Structures are given as structure tokens and as C-alpha cells.
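Entry 14. Two folds queued back to back today. First construct below, sequence then C-alpha cells.
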Amino acid sequence: MNYHIFYAHIRNQITTELLKEPNRVYEIEQKISFQNSETIYTFCSEAAHIFYSIQNLLSLKSTGDISNSVQSYTNVIFTHLSKGEKLPTLDLILAAAEALSPLL
């Protein structure tokens, strides 16, 4: 699958999870102070990019089997966001590696 298409798929899956509950975006934005022009959506894009990069480093193919890993990764992200915690990059990397580990 083309890089841009698969990356967009991951980003969209994370964003779709965010938008399942209409009040979720508002609640997260009230709890978390984003820097400069960062928003919840740019954070979701960054998280998707990290997931895709870790997937490539682990030499995993872009297949349908990866959907469960993306869902697991998304759950970790939103568990923290709903508590008002924005995961730093290192924690996103660790969460992505952990979510992808069952596919190794």
C-alpha cells in the first residue's frame, strides 16, 4: 500500500476514534494546553506518523492485520488524553512498539 494512503488510514482511524463522542474533543482541549499552532488534530497526525515509522522500523507490512494494533495504540492515546495528559513523543513510540509487538 502506498505510504500516503496507509499513513492517512492510521491518522483517520485515530481521528475517527476521537470523534465518536462529540464532547470528547471539547473536553480534551479544555484539559490539555497545546503549544503554538498544535491542536488535537495535529497531535493525532503526529501519533499516526510515529506509529507508521515504528511499523516500518519493525519491517511489518501494511496489512489488514494491523487494524487491531492501531486500535490498541489509539486506546492508549485516548486513555491519557481523557485524563488530561498529552503523551510525549517517547511515550508514543513505546505505545506504538507495544501495540505492534503481537505482530512480530
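Second construct, same run, same settings:
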Amino acid sequence: MSEPLPETEQTPDLAEQAWYVLRVMPQHERKIAQYLERLSFEYFLPLVPRKRKWSDRVKIVEFPLFPGYVFVRMRWFSDYVRVLSHPGALYFIKVDNRPTPLGAEHILNLRLLVAAQRELHADPAHNFPPGSEVEIRFGPLKGVRGVVARAKSKTRIYVRVPLLDQMVSAEVDVLDLEPVSL
């Protein structure tokens, strides 16, 4: 048998509750989160909205910020076997073959980041202030660059585009726009 790890400043107390990073199979993040919830574990699966395009529509869908990972708060010695018993759970992230807990401040920062992302997508028109240069990514004007004139609503924007040596205003869905990076 192996000897227990000596307690030092660098070795966490594995009997205390801490946040650990669980590696899961691809596309199993939500299943693992549901499993952890059924077992009454505190978990964190950061989801961020992203634009997803199908042949007939564009929709905002939530995707994991870190695909293949779920954060779980648990006691290492008493809980790790129960967490890993789900077929979609692969292993915990370790450093030098030792369990590596995350500080609670890291989880708090991730929660704040995810909340900020949601606020950005709650009113997408604010991402394109008047005068900003954009490129139209979808629709009949795909690939055309223009300048934002004004917002019509939270989802529609007037964009001035050059057409036949003149500037023409086109009403465009916010989801069809992408900012032009200089």
C-alpha cells in the first residue's frame, strides 16, 4: 500500500470539501451535471450562449465554456468513487499524480464571467454601437461590410452598406452581424 500524503502547505486537506475538475466524455457534460445533482453534489457547468446556424434558421444555443469538463465540489476521500461511477465520467485533473483542488475564488470568477457573457447576449444590439464597422455573415448580403447606422430594436439594426458607389441602409438581424476587427 502507498503511504498517505504528508500534510504540507502545498498538499490540500483531501478530507475537506473543495472544487475539483472532472474530465468527462465528449457531449456528456449535461448528463454528468444531472447525475451530480441527483447525488446532491454541488457542481458547476459553465454554459455560454453561441450562435448556431442551421439551413433554415439561426438560433442562440448554450454550449459548455470548457467542453469535456465539469467542476464538482466534494470531499476527495469519501466522494471520488461515487462521482467516477457514472460511465461518462473519465477522471479528475491531477498535478504530479495528486488531486488538485481549485480555489473557490476561481469558481466565483468563472461564475462572474458566465454571467457577463449572458448579459452581453441579452441585448445583442448593444454589441454594435452606431459607427462601428461590421460584416454581414448570413443572408443575401453575406460577406458585405458596412457601418452600423442605428438600432431599430434589440434584434434588428440598420447598416449602411456601399452599393453602386452609394451608401444604402439595410435592415439586418443582429445575429447576422459580426464586428470587423482591425
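Quick look at the second one. Confidence is low (pLDDT under 50) at residues 4-10. DSSP finds three helices and 13 strands in the chain.
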